Amino acid sequence: MTDHNEPENPPAEPTEPSRRMSRRQALTLISMASVNFSSMICYSILGPFFPAEAVKKGASQTVIGLIFGCYAVCNLIGSLVLGRYIVQIGAKFMLIAGLFVSSGCTIMFGLLDRVPSGPAFIALCFIVRSIDAVGFAGAMTSSFAMTAKIFPDNVATVLGSLEIFTGLGLILGPPVGGWFYQSFGYEVPFMLLGCLLLVMVPFNIYVLPSIDPSKDSFFHLLGHVKVVLICYAIFTLSAGLGFLDATLSLFAINKFNLSPGYVGLIMLGLSLPYCLASPLMGYITDKYASSRMVFMVTGAVITASGFCLLGPAPFLNISGPLWLLVVMLGLIGFSLGMTAIPTFPEIITYAYDQGFEEGLSTLGMVSGLFGAFWSLGMFYGPTVGGLITQHLSFEWAATVQGVWVLTLTFTHFYVLRNREDRQTDENTPLLNE
């Protein structure tokens, strides 16, 4: 019998929300980490040795820049299209299919040394890289969207933590690729890492949870000035990375007489600080969301300074020893983390504030927009940077890139000033009462 003097359902005492991750979140984190690591290590192996190998096959510096750039153009198109239709395609299927396509293309790229020099080699480089880019766009677009869907309250922290694995891929790719190239030739780095990416397919089929779908348009989102300026930041940052991918190895080999293996080690100066900065910036900008724009402006100033001293700029009339190159790469890597990590959660927050639907449709759209502008920069950087390097010098090309990044400080100062003005307007009635 029950005592009628006691309530049948006593009110539960308020409890603190659990800080432990659910099984679904843990599996997603493992899956996204594996995708980031395997994708980026396959992407970054080209830097130390491919430009020199392509020159032997009859490609000019401009063509090499276009080979890197075509990857970005196809990634741009793929990000927009796949981000728009992520709900219809399915986030999990898109990610797994993207990994499968990218792994096959990585293996095929390793066989291109058997192709005759000249137009045949160059044409196949464009074709394989373009298909690879679409696969990569599918994997990364769905990865961003699923992460934001499953970790809605800690987007920057989780993305910053995942960038550790992105950084590890960027760190290990150049030295591992350079060492395997020196020891075993052109084919082995691509074969091994393509197989690593292929292993990620069944792994993610088993590990990755399914996401239930939750409609606005890209043009609606781009109709807001703040979103356009953040996308401009994404563009300039990726342009800098794309420029370094296509030109840094040849510059270091020619100026300092380094082998591809040592060039791979130099590239650690860029990726290691980025790897360390990303989780820290993610945690801080999640905890203090109002600091995001401040970090973006500060990071832009540091990045611009790093590019101007990378060569260094010819008008500075100072020598450019190897240690200065490595230090500036480290500075650029750390400041990229300051500027890039806050961009994705800032767009999501702003989209929700403007009334966009809180679901996978909006997250996929934001992911596609991020990927598209990142890819646009990855096309501009190698292509225009390669042209300037070929007709002027690496030093001038790096300086131009620094000036591009410096313009971020003015555009984002505009956003900060407008936000402060709005806060003042909102507080004024309260002060007058």
TrEMBL record:
PROSITE patterns: MFS
Major location category of this protein: membrane
Subcellular location: Membrane
The keyword tRNA processing appears for this protein: no
Domain Major facilitator superfamily (MFS) profile residue range list: 28-419
A GO-annotated cellular component: membrane
Key words of the record: Membrane, Transmembrane, Transmembrane helix, Transport
Region spans: Disordered: 1-22
Lineage: superkingdom: Eukaryota
Protein name according to UniProt: Major facilitator superfamily (MFS) profile domain-containing protein
Organism from which the protein derives: Amphiprion ocellaris (Clown anemonefish)
